[in-house]
Specification:
448 residues, alpha/beta, Aspartate Aminotransferase, domain 1, 7-stranded mixed sheet, 14% strand
Length: 448
């Protein structure tokens, strides 16, 4: 069997070479209490056909986003990905490429990264963008670490509108760096509380717009307060498509902008892989994590591309590295760049406008349901509603009706005391029929 290449004779020869009488002797340092004598309760090995059948049966238990009305958002959004994107990323030179250690033979990959950076810088309104990161949450954590390096301060304030998963990721990483994280309680409109918390010890303020409740906010006043105290402003965006309609972070005074780029060119994929966007002011570029692809000319004056800045630990001495992220989600970044190129500026703005229009239609339909309260005053394509019953209970009930109604906020932040709050999103994939079915089913379930 090709997956089990060693025969008993092979194993005996290897044990003889190292002077061990049995495989068990290799585990002599493991305390007997920690050893397991019998097999785990897992299926034994099977043939390829049997494995395929088993995995297919498990996969069939999943429900795809396109199987019916779907209103989930909360950091991952269902959008249409043109067939062209998948066709191009599956070309062998893209699908199999790894990392451009040798620029002379990786010009295509480097140019892709350069173009991607240019697009991200334009979207965020900042001068410099890196060649992507794991995802939005880890990009947020890396931004906080960068602010520590820039300001030489140890405190970060996370606003109450920041996605709880982003806050938790940042807390996990910052703890290892010895930073103080002030995580404010969940709040639909957290601006005043953020400004009041800024002091002379603050390294950075992390705000999200549109925030986890969908509220779109001009954070210029927060930027002014942060800068007056010598702190940096980090703006987080979980829905990159909103850049097509709203003010960019740079326009609002952000020093660093991070985002989840999944909604452009990348499907939901049951949770990943995704792609983190990261941009900053040019004066901070040497403190930026990741790597930076640049444009230059060779000895003969021909246009070429290089890694201008490589601050990852696999490129330079570990103690000099600004990040230990060892991949840049390159294929996802390529998909992002291809989709954005196909759209262009006009197409991006049009697509964003369609998303907002669909969300407004959804808001009007849900607002007409007795007992439903709309909580989000200004939004892009997502908003929060308060239900007369626990949101998780209503989601389960509506799933029985074939409708994926959204994300209960209690699932993201169980201790927030918002068990009746439901996050709902609408995109260009949402149809009027989907909205009507949702509103009708919700009204029926509330009345029961």
């Amino acid at each position: 069997m090709r997956y089990l290449p060693l025969t008993p004779d092979d194993r005996a020869a290897m044990l003889g070479a190292i002077g061990a009488a049995s495989v068990d002797e290799l585990f002599a340092d493991v305390p007997p209490a920690a050893r397991r004598a019998e097999l785990f309760d897992l299926p034994l090995h099977a043939g390829e056909l049997e494995v395929e059948r088993e995995l297919a049966a498990l996969a069939a238990m999943n429900r795809t986003a396109g199987a019916g009305p779907f209103f989930c958002g909360a950091g991952a959004y269902r959008h249409h990905v043109p067939a062209t994107v998948d066709h191009i990323i599956q070309r062998s030179e893209f699908l199999t490429s790894y990392t451009p250690y040798q620029p002379e033979i990786a010009q295509g990959t480097l140019q892709v990264l350069f173009e991607f950076q240019t697009q991200v810088a334009a979207l965020t309104g900042l001068e410099v963008a890196n060649a992507s990161m794991y995802d939005g949450s880890t990009a947020c954590a890396e931004a906080v670490m960068m602010a520590q390096r820039v300001t030489r301060r140890e405190k970060a304030i996370l606003c109450g509108g920041l996605h709880p998963h982003y806050a938790a990721t940042t807390q996990t990483i910052a703890h290892a760096e010895g930073m103080e994280i002030v995580r404010q309680p969940a709040a639909i409109n957290p601006e005043d509380a953020v400004i009041a918390a800024i002091d002379g010890e603050t390294a950075c303020v992390v705000v999200q717009t549109p925030n986890v409740f969908g509220v779109a906010t001009d954070v210029s006043k927060i930027a002014e307060a942060a800068h007056a105290a010598g702190a940096l402003l980090i703006v987080v965006t979980t829905e990159a498509l909103s850049y097509g309609l709203l003010k960019s972070p740079g326009e609002m005074g952000a020093d660093i902008a991070v985002a989840e780029g999944q909604s452009i060119g990348n499907g939901l994929n049951f949770g990943g892989p995704y792609v983190g966007l990261f941009a900053c002011r040019e004066k901070f570029v040497r403190m930026m994590p990741g790597r930076l692809a640049g444009e230059t000319v060779d000895a003969e004056g021909r246009r070429g591309f290089v890694l201008t800045l490589s601050t990852r630990e696999q490129h330079i001495r570990r103690e000099k590295a600004t990040s230990n992220i060892c991949t840049n989600s390159g294929l996802c970044a390529l998909a992002f760049s291809i989709h954005l190129t196909l759209l262009g500026e006009k197409g991006l703005r049009q697509l964003a406008a369609v998303n907002h229009a669909r969300a407004r239609e959804l808001k009007e339909a849900l607002a007409a349901v007795p007992g439903v309260e709309i909580l989000t005053p200004r939004f892009f394509n997502e908003f929060a509603v308060r239900l007369p019953k626990p949101a998780a209970q209503m989601v389960d009930a509506l799933l029985a009706d074939g409708i994926v109604a959204g994300v209960p906020f209690s699932r993201l932040d169980p201790g927030a005391g918002m068990d009746d709050v439901l996050l709902v999103a609408a995109t260009e994939t949402t149809t009027p029929e989907d909205i009507a079915a949702f509103a009708a089913a919700l009204q029926r379930r509330i009345a029961q």
